[in-house]
Amino acid sequence: MTCSEPRSETTTEPSAEHFAGRGGDRPTAPRTSTAGLAPATLCAQAGHARDAATGAVVPPVHLATTYARDADYALIGPEYTRDQNPSYAAAERVIAGLEGGAEAALFASGQAAGQAVAAALVPPGGRMVVPTLGYHALLRQFARLGRRYGFAVDRYDARDPDALARTIAAGPVDLVWVETPSNPLWQVVDIARAAELAHAAGAVLAVDNTAMTPLLQRPLALGADLVMHSATKALNGHSDAMAGVLVTGQADETWARVRAERAQAGAVPGPFEAWLLLRGLRTLALRVGQASANALALAEALMGHPGVEAVLYPGLADHPGHAVHRAQTDIRRGHGSLLSILVHGGATRARRVASATRLFIPATSIGGVESLIEHRHTIEGPDSPTPESLLRLSVGIEDADDLIADLVQALDRTAP
Ligand SMILES: *Cc1c(COP(=O)(O)O)cnc(C)c1O
């Protein structure tokens, strides 16, 4: 690593050892270890989160911003909510467990989580590499940070398996960013290969795993160092709380810098958002399974529709990333809830289809229980590289036949 910022006392949160043996003081202390539990169990039981004071099976929301010290002026629990809060800790424990990571840290949003990685790990004069296409707002923010703080942000075309290697080889690199499958074309990057390339160059590999969730894809097991999610999406799953999260494979010095960045920037969520996230996580396994089954049924049904030029879904055998996707995804649970279609008739038809649906709600975002349809080019703005005929579908947990019938009627009604 090329930059280092000592962790100041005020941004250091109490360690696991600090809490050890003081379970009674820790209001959401797990009753037993969660190690080895299957994802569905970890989710449903919210990692055994309990209120130790009352036995409540749902932990309280810890709204306190500050925490008292004991007679020796030692911390009893957390110090200050900008560093740590028991409501964050409960959700962080579940997400770290699902990703197979050592620790997790919640952020105010996915944007805040992604930005913290770049800000903490890429020094002025350094370099990060990012995909040409991916979640538009975060890629734009990386470019802005690079211009403002004086580091290079070089892009690779995720469709070309050699492009990542070439871009990394172009010079010293601090951070490699991967988003797979990437929003909204669902291009697939080989995570294990990216990890080899990043590590051979001495760089950290971070993977945006928002699209797949840890139920379907676990980047740390494939060699990634950090995993990022917009927890606003499927992890919470109910389109009612904004949060981001980072998970680390190891609680090392790199992680300490990322955590310090969160506290320094104050990029933390509200405790109630963390509590809503923990509540949403309880049904994650069920939601991901149902939404993925619905998405596959929809992808297969739309393939044959005369109004559809192409269906972009990694679960389809004709998708260019299908083989890599199969190799790095737990396809027994599904292929994810996200797909895009290219419609005949360009931007005009696409926007008309989005307005003609009765169940699919024309709105931005992904990963909720309700199905959404979006004309991505409109949202990304005039400089958007997204095809104008593209509609992004975030498939919810409604009945698959109802969803298929809805899109078919919208396509039929807008036929030229
Ligand atoms: C939504 C999203 C983000 C940004 O997250 P916010 O919570 O909206 O800030 C980043 N990456 C992906 C893939 C997303 O879908």
UniProtKB/TrEMBL annotation:
Residues 1-25 have a biased composition (Basic and acidic residues). The keyword Magnesium does not apply. GO terms for molecular function: carbon-sulfur lyase activity; pyridoxal phosphate binding. The modification N6-(pyridoxal phosphate)lysine is found at residue 233. Signal peptide: none annotated. GO terms for biological process: transsulfuration. InterPro entries: Cys/Met-Metab_PyrdxlP-dep_enz (IPR000277), PyrdxlP-dep_Trfase (IPR015424), PyrdxlP-dep_Trfase_major (IPR015421), PyrdxlP-dep_Trfase_small (IPR015422). Its cofactor is pyridoxal 5'-phosphate. Gene3D superfamilies: Aspartate Aminotransferase, domain 1, Type I PLP-dependent aspartate aminotransferase-like (Major domain). The keyword Membrane does not apply. Residues 1-34 are annotated as: Disordered. GO terms for cellular component: cytoplasm. Keywords: Pyridoxal phosphate. Belongs to the trans-sulfuration enzymes family. This is Cystathionine gamma-synthase. It comes from Rhodothalassium salexigens DSM 2132.
